[in-house]
Amino acid sequence: MKVVKNYLYNAFYQVFILLVPLITIPYLARVLGPTGVGINSYTNSIIQYFILFGSIGVDLYGNRQIAFVRGDKVRLTQTFYEIFIMRVITICIAYAAFIVFLMFTHEYKNYYLAQSLSIIAAAFDISWFFMGVENFAVTVFRNLLIRIVTLICIFSFVKSSADLYIYILILSVSLLLGNMSLFPSLHRYINRPNFKGLHITRHLMPSIILFVPQIATQIYLVLNKTMLGSMISVRAAGYFDQSDKIVKMVLAIVTATGTVMLPHVANAFANGEHKKIHSYLYKSFSFVTALSIPMMFGIIAVASKFVPLFFTNRFRSVIPIMMIESVVILLIAWSNVLGTQYLLPTKQTKAYTTSVILGAIVNLVINIPLILLWGAVGTAIATVISELVVTLCQLKVVREQVQFRKLFQGTGKYLSAGIMMFVVVTLFNKQLPSSWISLFLEVVIGIVVYGLMLVVFKAKIIDEAKEFFNDR
Q: What is the pLDDT of residue 390?
């Protein structure tokens, strides 16, 4: 029951941190236009590199290490402060590197400065600690007020394309305040540190080992926008960014299981409960498959109506990008279970790292020709192929450790139900007029059709849901 509760908290949190920009997207698309949106996307993609190198894999490593020692308050206190201080130091180095970068940059200098507050904010991000102790409620509710204030500020102060700097500043400051708001809750878990007994450097190499796959992941999460902005235009980067925001919001619901299950599986692994780990894996894989398939088909079916309504007709170029990129919802759902929920907590970091690096290499190699041929659409294709490579590599690694038949049990039924849903929604999408009411109706129809098909096919998820409610 605790896992389900934490999943709901984390799913809400992951969606919520994307909800503020999502709610403001229609407004900002009209106020800032494709160019303004593109400049924000492009400059932020550069800043993310400094945040990435400053964080050195702490989010994953810290989460896992805290899960390992959470039963011992002394070790928990020591581990937290060692990792936290290490991250503050590396973020300071990253910010110094940013200052050097700024000295050689002449375009968008003010926007980079506003974005750079996000680098400082990363030093105070201790959400990894609360995820490690499996307290997801605090990260949700502490940030709720900050995000609401952010929303109010955006609608109050961003009135034209000239306010792009103010918009970036609002987002950066809110991130900093949101991260700092988590500190008052620490006293429930840790004591005052014994600074003489801290060994900060012992976490450096293990963190860097997990940092390598994060670098690779960042290549096809951020480099796409950087390359589009440099090779085509900031407008093209903006188109891809808008599609990416919608897909990432949907993905947040699915991949929330990864953040919740990592400390849970890590704790089971530390106690030698291997049968329990495999049980978690099969159930989680079935759950994310059942959830991601309708989301993937749903976006493809309604994209042609959703984009003009949500972004305005000036963003119609986003439609094919979103339809192609939505395929990664299923691929990332699978790789999240295999990688984040299984390989990492069971200390198979090398296998996980190899899969992600191969995906990054493929992305980098094919991105250039595909961008030159089809612009942002080419980037979407490259993203899908890269995620496919990652997933296939991880499946190859676990093939001798798990039962594939049990892992994919029910997948055929989920796909069949998803295809039926897609056909029905597409037919309604063509017949109904372009309006929010029609779009809402199509979503409801899709949910009903998919649910009915699962019942008809007697899908595995139905039995698992019955077991859950019966256990309660």
A: 92
